[in-house]
Structure formats: structure tokens, C-alpha cells
Amino acid sequence: MAHQVNLEYLSRVVFEEKDLLFPDSVVGTDSHITMVNGLGILGWGVGGIETEAVMLGLPVSLTLPEVVGCELTGSSNPFVTSIDVVLGITKHLRQVGVAGKFVEFFGSGVSQLSIVDRTTIANMCPEYGAILSFFPVDNVTLKHLEHTGFDKAKLESMEAYLKAVKLFRNEHDNSGEPEYSQVGFKGFQIAAEKQNDIVSIHYEGSEYKLAHGSVVIAAVISCTNNCNPSVMLAAGLLAKKAVEAGLQVKPYIRTSLSPGSGMVTHYLSSSGVLPYLSKLGFEIIGYGCSTCVGNTAPLSEAVLNAVKQGDLVTCGVLSGNKNFEGRLCDCVRANYLASPPLVVAYAIAGTVNIDFQTEPLGTDPTGKNIYLHDIWPSREEVHQIEEEHVVLSMFKALKEKIEMGNKRWNSLEAPDSVLFPWDLKSTYIRCPSFFDKLTKEPVALQPIANAHVLLHLGDSVTTDHISPAGSIARSSAAAKYLTNRGLTPREFNSYGARRGNDAVMTRGTFANIKLFNKFIGKPAPKTIHFPSGQTLDVFEAAELYQKEGIPLIILAGKKYGSGNSRDWAAKGPYLLGVKAVLAESYEKIHKDHLIGIGIAPLQFLPGESADSLGLSGRETFSLTFPEELSPGVKLNIKTSTGKVFSVIASFENDVEITLYKHGGLLNFVARKFS
């Protein structure tokens, strides 16, 4: 995992090039890149479109954002884990609204947070929308770097430099706190008569009962905690005590353990807790993205049938950093984030409808009630195990392994040709169609004339809604494509695994079952093809529009494109024929992706929306672009009903306008090298 390598091997904090010192920084494609901000390294994630351009020599442009100061004071309760603190901070930052901004933490409470706590907090940026969350270097940082094997002379030079340029945080001197731009911090609508519904299932020879709130997926994922051994060890110690008390996890619950790196496996194994996690069903399933992006083994037919029969709101509990609806599994409607030990606790309880303080997790073989406090490890226990098993030698061993390389990787065959040899039979990698109609010189900006609305969406449409990464549903357009190429449902894999195939990804665009299109009136990956009046899969409708030569737009509310920086959430709509998105506001990275692929990001005027303007989405929309397009210029849109209203062309700078005029960043780069 990129973030693991950044934190444990590549991070320098301060670079030394001959006689020049300068701060470390990183831009990467992984959404967890922001973890390095916990080490005092400025870093953020970008999408594949920008990365492809950077690989070909273009710079990454960024309009200087606001910096929001978040003051931390006091200390946490002994029973609170760092993940609980993280989720609390995330909740507050969501409420304040920090989308598209930098966040920097300051105040006396910062000193109470270890580096592993800080990196975990910094990693949660996708959950509250900030570009990054920064912790300045201080004495805590220096001690961590010393613990992980940094040279003493290097640390002394680093400290002197950072203090000289005023980038070092002095926890004993709050008189010089920086000045900031700003300082601050859906129910499921189950009918009352159905809230106590229970459905019986038979599984492996026994009978169990499922209800609203039943846990069916429990995943301990350390990608967001990979440098935080304390919470992973706490989960292991809790599992050990649970097994010793005779507690079990119901077998139909899909449990899994996904370590962020081999180092996590090493300390879980050497500390002796790994076998106890295994006994509760938390077996290691791999080291890459797994449950949190929908890459999990399917639930049993018994569970699926029960959920459908009772229309149950079942739950997934995971220690990842994303819980967007429908992300884990299309049949699991409620997903919750929790610390690793609480994931294990909820798996044992089998439900999220529990008060851990007053209700037991279960009973021991004698019938005695066992409560969470009976098996919760103390901080002293966790600290002792951590001191014994997470040591300096582990970090040194990791560096040695990286430098030695991997024999299996080195032995893989690779083609020697300059150009990639496309395999026409492959259903994983296909030559994309982005450049099929590319001209040597960009043409003048064309008007969008009589465009139909492909989708009429509300607020907080995530990149998961737009381009899901999880499993491919058997009834989806992507499934039909793969079936026609001789694949069985077991071979479909996931959208994330097939993102090298534009035919699959285009068919998967807006294929999330939780997508709420106002034309349909309920969650479903469907829309209306207005010329014929048919209700179709989104891909099928878009395909008809393209055959008819009709351009498309999308209407949306606030925070369109929030969540992961996923380039296919822009590439997919582009290949569907979408020319513009008209939203109340955007998540910045996604807006950049739209421009980067050649889709115009249009924004309602402040205080206006589709509803306030009386737009049903069934009209057609037309607009023209001025010859001299400028950042933030107002454009007039005329509908087929005669309504005319103004919108903002949401370009922030001349670079974005240049890219849009070329039809996107990929076209710009292709022309540059042609």
C-alpha cells in the first residue's frame, strides 16, 4: 500500500540536496496519501487523470485554498481509543464544512496525540472533505522518527532547519499560534410496526434470527491504522479474552482481517493474538483494498434471502475510513465505522442495537453474562504488548526487505515493446476510446444544444454512487457485457479490478443500487429515456441518446462528487455522452476531474437550485460558451419551456480553461506530444 511505504520508508520530512534543505511533500493517487500529514509532510491525493499528465511532464496546479485551524485541547478518556477520537473529530469537521480546504491542528491537545493517532486523523480527509489535515513537526514527531530508525545527525539537522524557518511546533509556547482563514471545529424510515420484525434463517445446520440492526459483515481493516499498533493489538487482546470467556461469532457473519502490511501481521503473530482473532473468524484475507471497497466474499444465500424477505436493514461494521451506503455490499444498507476492538465486539454481539454498558455481549458456557468491560483490555496491557513486539528492529527489517526487492515480482515477464501490446481477448485491459475522435488542433468550444437530463440527483452524491468499485451485480449492464464474452458470475470480479476496461467501467457508471434519481423516485441505477418514455439502466438510456445524437447533462444538489478521488467518476460520464454537470456545489477534486476529462462544471447561483428555479429535469437545456471564456464567468441557460437562468462556469483559473478548451487534460497532453 502506498501510504504504508510513504510512512515507513519513503518519508524524509526534510530533504537534503547538497547544501539545500527543503520540506518534504508528496502528491499521489492513493486516497490514504494524506496520512503523511501526521508526520508533518504536506501531502494529498489526486486522481488518475492528473497523474497520467504528471507522468508526461505536466505540473499539478492548485488554487491556494483556505487553511482552517482546528484547536485540540484536553485529553481523552482511558477507555477511548484513537479511532474513537478520530471519528469524533471527523463528525465535527463534517458539521463545520471544510470541503476543498486545508486543515491544520493546533493547541495543547495536539501534544497528547501520538504520531499513529495523528496519521489516522489525517487519513480521514475523504470523510470530511478536506484536501489535507496537517500536524506540524514537533518533539513527538522527532521521537517517532528516532524510534523508526532515523539517523541522529539527520534528526538534529532537521530540527534546526524547521525551527529556523518557523515550521516547528513548540508545544510549550502557544503565544505564536499561526493565523488561520477560519477556526472551528439519514435514518432508514422503518415503519414503527416493522421495527421489531425477525426473520429466521438456517445456516450450517443451526437456526438463527436476523432483525434490523443485525451485523452481517465485520471487517478489521488496518489500512487506516497501519502505523497504529495499539488499536490492532487491542482488537487481538479483546479477541483473546473473548475466546477464553467462551464467546463466539455467529458463523453467518462475514468476518475478515485485512492488515495494512506484513508488519501488522508480524506483530499480531509475535504477540500471540492472531490465533484468537482467527478463532472468531477474523482470518487474514489479503493486504490490499478489500471489504471497504466492496471486495468481500459474497454473503450466504440464507442471509441474502432473509434480508430480501424481511426488507431488513442489516449492518456492516468496519475499521476503515469510508462507509458510504451500498459500498460494502449492495444488500447491506447500514455501514458503520468503528475502532478494531469494537468491530470484534459488534461481531460477537451480532447487532448494533446494543448498549455495551448495560447489555451483555453473550454468555459463557455456564450461562454467565459477559459484558464488554469484562474483556476490554486496559491501556497498560496494550502498551506492554506494544513495547515488547513493535520495536525498532521491525522497521529496520522492513527497510532491508524493500531494498532487497521481491523475487516473484522481479521474475514476472514484461513485454519489451515501446507500445503496450493490447490483448483483444482480455476483459481486464482494453484500449480505451478517449482519443478516437481527437483532432490535431482543438476546435472552438461548441454550444450544448437541446441537451436532455440523464439524471436528476440530490445532495451528497459520492464518487461511489457515480462509479462504484465493488462487486458487479448479476443484472447490471456490465454483467451482460461480461456474460456475452463467456464469463460466469463467479468470474465477474469487481469494478475496481476491471478499471482497465472502459467498456465495463462505462456500463458501471451510475450502477450503484443506492443511487437516488428523482426521475425514478426510489434508489435504483435506472433513468428515463425521455424521447421513448422507457425506464432503462443508465447505460442503456445513455447509449440510446448517443445513437440519436442528443447531448446529456446531469442535475445535482450540494457536494456533488464527494468521497474518494476516483477518475472513473469523471471518465464514465464522459463516455456516456455527458457534456456538463449543473450542481449547487462540488467536491473540489471531482470538479477537477470533470474539467480534466472535458465535462463542463456548471454551478447554480448562490441560493438557487433546480427546485427553486422550478426545473423538473424533463426539459431540454441549451447554452453557448463565450469566445473568451474566463474563470467564474456567468452563462445563460435556456430550457425548452422558455425559462432562462444564469449559472456560473466553475473554472478557477486559466489553466483549467485551457484544459477544457482542449476537451480535457488527456487531449491536451496528447496534442502536446503529437
UniProtKB/TrEMBL annotation:
PANTHER family with a match to the protein in the record: ACONITASE/IRON-RESPONSIVE ELEMENT FAMILY MEMBER
SUPFAM superfamilies tied to this protein: Aconitase iron-sulfur domain, LeuD/IlvD-like
Name this protein carries in UniProt: Iron-responsive element-binding protein 2
CDD domains per record: AcnA_IRP_Swivel
Every Aconitase A/isopropylmalate dehydratase small subunit swivel domain range: 479-605
Keyword annotations from UniProtKB, A to Z: 4Fe-4S, Iron, Iron-sulfur, Metal-binding
Domain annotation Aconitase/3-isopropylmalate dehydratase large subunit alpha/beta/alpha: ranges: 2-183, 193-350
Molecular functions (GO terms): 4 iron, 4 sulfur cluster binding; iron-responsive element binding; metal ion binding
Alphabetical list of InterPro entries matching this protein: AcnA_IRP_Swivel (IPR044137), Acnase/IPM_dHydase_lsu_aba_1/3 (IPR015931), Acoase/IPM_deHydtase_lsu_aba (IPR001030), Aconitase/3IPM_dehydase_swvl (IPR015928), Aconitase/IRP2 (IPR006249), Aconitase_4Fe-4S_BS (IPR018136), Aconitase_4Fe-4S_dom (IPR036008), AconitaseA/IPMdHydase_ssu_swvl (IPR000573)
